[in-house]
Amino acid sequence: MTEPRWLDEREQQAWRSLMKMQDGLSEFLERQLRNRCGLSSADYQVLAHLSETPEGRLRSFELGRLLRWEKSRLSQHLGRMQSRGLVSRERCPTDQRGAVVVITPRGSDLIKVAAPQHVADVRDVLIDHLTAAEMAALVTIGDKVGERLAALEREQ
């Protein structure tokens, strides 16, 4: 077995800073969504994807792919959202085994209220505090890590 490549001090600082930022940002945005609109960040993601489609509807497998969620997680979460009147599920007209997730008027109203506030929070805590160079670096880093994750997924 090979010896692990431990992080040096600078690498450890970068890693911990990233984790602190990610956790803090997620907790802050989650709290804001819950307090203002009664939505979880998962609810928000589902409603955002549905609201961005022309008819407010997506096949379940397409929504799961966009969210990068496993089928069971998606099904359970959609069930909770359906019981709250945020989405409905219909049989797919072209594939009787498939389902279509549809945003309800209540879900649509909630995302219309939540989205501007959410964007304002993202700006307030992150975007408006970065220089153009920092923003470009963030995009580069995010893309690079995303490409590596995709490559590792393909290898499995």
Description:
A 3-stranded antiparallel sheet has the order 1-3-2. With 156 residues, it is mostly helical. Helix content is 68%, strand content 8%. The protein has helices spanning 9-37, 41-51, 60-67, 71-83, 105-125, 132-155; strands at 57-59, 87-91, 99-103. It contains 6 helices and 3 strands, in the order ααβααββαα. Helix 1 (9-37) packs antiparallel against helix 5 and helix 2 (41-51) packs across helix 5 (105-125).
Highlighted features:
single chain, about 160 residues, mainly alpha, three-stranded antiparallel beta sheet, 6 helices, 3 strands, about 10% strand
What is the terminal-to-terminal distance?
A: 21 Å
Fraction in helix? 55-70%
The tally of strands reads: 3
Taking the sheet with the most strands, its summary is: 3 strands, antiparallel
Q: What overall form do the CA principal axes indicate?
A: globular
Structural class: mainly alpha
Order of helices and strands: HHEHHEEHH
Percent of residues in β-strands = 5-15%
How many distinct helices? 6
- Uncertain segments are none
Mean pLDDT, as a whole number?
95
Instruction: Identify the strand order in the major beta sheet.
Output: 1-3-2
Radius of gyration, Cα only, in angstroms?
A: 19 Å
